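My current task is to audit a protein record that another person submitted. I need someone to confirm that the token line plausibly describes how this chain folds. Take the sequence as given and treat only the tokens as open to question. This is what I was given:
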Amino acid sequence: VSGLAPETLTENLTMQQTFCPPCRQGKDKLDDTIYVDFKGDRVLMCCSGCMKKMSQYWNGYIKIMNARGEKPISIPEGDDREASMKLDKPLGFNKNNKGVCGPCMTGLCMLKEHLPEELQGTWGSTFGNAYGKIFHSADKSSL
């Protein structure tokens, strides 16, 4: 679907995506100015903390989306799609320099049940909330 206006792309994304994969907040928390692109696909995020996690653990969070019957949207043909196809790792965009969400600020997004499978046995899942606070110590603003 070449030539979709940005607002049409956003409408398509939010119709298909019902939650933020890292923190599991609902569709109403998704922000079209924060997203992660990779190999022609885009996933909207709710905050900068989730964007960082999605960028780092793309495959794990895509598995979580798939388990809930969702998948990333294919970016329509054009400059954004071409650029994302050339990426060797997922790339996050935070166009309005938004801070972190409540679950990220309190560390709830680092609880074992919110982590991708490959992280569930790590020390991060053991410490949950404490690790979440450390993980986001550089992000001073809360949503």
